[in-house]
Amino acid sequence: MKVQIKDISKQILGDIPSPCRNCIYWEFPELFNRVNSEEAFKYKKSWFIKALDRFGVCGKVLYVNDEAIAYSQFAPYHLLPQTKNYGCQLEEVRNDIIFLSCLFICKPEYRRMGLGSRLLEDILSTLKAYGSNKIETIARKDSANNPSGPLEFYLKHNFQIRKILDQNFVLISLKL
């Protein structure tokens, strides 16, 4: 099994696997579930182009045997407006605290093979090189089938619970 992880660039935006390629939940909450898939992907591409110019690498695609099967997206809080609705966005604009909005193995048959861990390690390495101080995400207690991933995955990777948001969701963080 050949595994490769690539930073999302303008050249590989089309490789973002479904369902992630059409999800604009974090970037455009006012449009989420209100536009068709084609329009959503146009918004996703426009967000990436803006985020790449303002921040740099803000997502990765994991390939197995040249097939895109996993996706991750991360950026400073101010580039992901949906975080305001969870009460976890910082007041000031800071690029050193990053929100991981998605780390998802899109094909279930590839889960529990260590690919999520490899993708997370690659993200952490990138963020450390950028000088980021902390990464945060919202993990789910009750299901592994969600964009941010299950809580136990992150606890295994030394994330700490920062805030319990409700019975299913927890804001967690890792100091870099």
> Uncertain runs with pLDDT below 50, 5 residues or more?
none
- Oligomeric state as shown: single chain
| Number of helices in the DSSP assignment | 3
Percentage of residues in strands: 25-35%
Assign the CATH architecture: 3-Layer(aba) Sandwich
Shape: globular
- The third-level CATH topology is Aminopeptidase
- Supply Rg: 15 Å
Largest pleated sheet:
7 strands, mixed
Q: Helix and strand succession?
A: EHEEEHEHEE
What does this structure look like?
With 176 residues, the protein is α+β, with helices and mostly antiparallel strands. It has one domain (3-175): Aminopeptidase (3-Layer(aba) Sandwich), CATH 3.40.630. It is built from three helices and seven strands, in the order E-H-E-E-E-H-E-H-E-E. It has helices spanning 37-54, 115-130, 151-156; strands spanning 3-7, 59-64, 67-76, 97-105, 134-140, 160-164, 169-175. Strand 2 and strand 3 (67-76) form a beta hairpin. The longest helix is centred in the N-terminal third of the chain and has 18 residues, at 37-54.
Sequence-ordered SSE layout with sheet pairings:
Blueprint lengths: L2 E5 L29 H18 L4 E6 L2 E10 L20 E9 L9 H16 L3 E7 L10 H6 L3 E5 L4 E7 L1
Parallel strand pairs: 4-5
Antiparallel strand pairs: 1-2, 2-3, 3-4, 5-7, 6-7
Short structural summary:
The chain is of the alpha+beta class. A hairpin with a 4-residue loop joins strand 6 (160-164) and strand 7 (169-175). It has a seven-stranded mixed beta sheet with strand order 1-2-3-4-5-7-6.
